[in-house]
Amino acid sequence: MEFDAGVDYNQGTFRGTTYDRNEWALNLSSSGLSPSWGAKVSREESITTDESGQTADHTVERLPELDFSWTISPEGIPGEYEVGSNLGYYREKLSTWSEARYAGRATFTGNFSVDSSPIRGLRVSLSGEGETGYYLAADGENSRPRAWEEVVPSLELTGPATLRTEFVHRGKVGSSPFYFDHVDRLNRLKLDLSSSQGEVTQTLDFYYDFLPDPGPSDITYKVNFDLEKLDQTLSFAYDPALGWPESLGTESIYSTKDLGVKLSTGYDFSDLSMSESSLGLRLGSGVNDFTITLKGTPLDTWLEVVSGELKLKLFETWSINIAGEYDLSSDSLTGLSYSVHNTLQNCLKVGISGNESGVWFDVELAGF
Question: How confident is the model at residue 49 (pLDDT cuts 50, 70, 90)?
Answer without folding.
Answer: low
